[in-house]
């Protein structure tokens, strides 16, 4: 029986590319570099940083990842931080959630389910992501929010899901975790003992059932159906 549904945040609820576009605009203004070049460098470095984080290279996640980005892009750490703050204060930040995000959260609340947001971090802290979630009208749906810089571990570490189970006062197998990352979200949740749903927007099939613990969906609006499948499984 599922008691809580947890969501990854970036690329699941919020559009990373839109946020990075805003940061790129601010960085371009601060550094004088062409916007197109800055955005390309930022996105390329993002994917490299994801790999570096998985390898455990960011012991101090905010500073170490900021230094990683700054060195790769040939900019200062402070310019990166300033650009991020300016992006968060930009009015357009209110429109970076995916269209299916709030719809799914509303439907899950109608089922009286608890909701959690689980966020890994790079060069901005979890509290900043909470602000962005609030600006996109999503934070109000969360009963629990956990971020890597605050709890000291990041997905796919099983301790993230253990902390969630403790805060939600439930068993790990009563958690359904949803996210876009095959490693951080899908494998991480399954290895920890939770149920997992991999989000693959653009997939032709709406729902793929791998077994009673693992699912794939092409939209967050299908997540309530996954909850029903699990809770009605015999």
TrEMBL record:
Record keywords: Hydrolase
Keyword tRNA processing carried by entry: no
InterPro entries, per database record: HAD-like_sf, HAD-SF_hydro_IA, HAD_sf, S-2-haloacid_dehalogenase
GO terms, molecular function: hydrolase activity
Family listed: Belongs to the HAD-like hydrolase superfamily.
NCBIfam families per UniProt: HAD-SF-IA-v1
Record-given protein name: HAD-superfamily hydrolase, subfamily IA, variant 1
Organism of provenance: Staphylothermus marinus (strain ATCC 43588 / DSM 3639 / JCM 9404 / F1)
């Amino acid at each position: 029986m599922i008691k809580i549904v947890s969501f990854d945040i970036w690329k699941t609820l919020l559009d990373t590319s839109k946020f990075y576009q805003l940061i790129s605009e601010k960085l371009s203004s601060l550094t004088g570099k062409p916007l197109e070049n800055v955005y390309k460098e930022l996105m390329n470095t993002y994917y490299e940083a994801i790999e570096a984080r998985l390898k455990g290279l960011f012991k101090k996640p905010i500073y170490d990842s900021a230094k990683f980005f700054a060195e790769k892009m040939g900019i200062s750490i402070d310019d990166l931080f300033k650009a991020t703050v300016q992006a968060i204060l930009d009015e357009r930040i209110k429109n970076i959630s995916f269209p299916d995000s709030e719809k799914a959260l509303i439907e899950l609340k109608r089922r009286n389910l608890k909701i959690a947001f689980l966020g890994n971090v790079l060069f901005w802290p979890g509290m900043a992501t909470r602000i962005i979630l609030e600006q996109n009208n999503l934070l109000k749906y969360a009963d629990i929010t956990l971020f890597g810089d605050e709890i000291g571990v990041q997905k796919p570490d099983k301790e993230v899901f253990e902390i969630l189970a403790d805060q939600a006062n439930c068993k790990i197998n009563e958690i359904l975790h949803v996210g876009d990352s095959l490693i951080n979200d899908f494998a991480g949740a399954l290895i920890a003992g939770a149920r997992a749903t991999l989000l693959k927007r653009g997939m032709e099939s709406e729902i793929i059932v791998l077994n009673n613990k693992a699912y794939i969906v092409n939209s967050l609006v299908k997540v309530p159906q996954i909850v029903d499948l699990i809770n009605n499984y015999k």
